[in-house]
Amino acid sequence: MRKYFMELFAMGFVDSEGNLVEENVLRDAQRTAALTAKIMKENIDNTWEMESHLNRIFCAWMIYSDTIFSRSITYIIGREAACVEEHLWMVGEALDDDEFSDYLSEYLMALIVEVANATRDQIIDNFMRFMTGGSEDGAGDM
What stretch of H or E contains 92? Predict the structure, then answer.
């Protein structure tokens, strides 16, 4: 029996027999990455800074153990990411080491996609603003 069976079962991470439900674990990692990217987008103004934060996240992942990495998100992104950090820590405590490593890998892959999408959207917005003469509502003359 797993150490945190009831917590994992309530989250949908394991079935009634204690077997890991990988689909739900991966879906949670993707949702957590989407939340992280949303927090980054709300607090970071430009694409360079967003990419810089993503690079710091990857460096922390490569340097630190999974447990220490899960506790470094607030330091890298800011106080607004405390909920993400707590969630990662809780998942890390509940899953075994290999399962948590897989979870973090999925989280980071999804975070790359989310940040790339946010960067693309920001580039498109900047281009449209440029093409419309700099007006925010897109009603500028050309």
Answer: helix 82-94
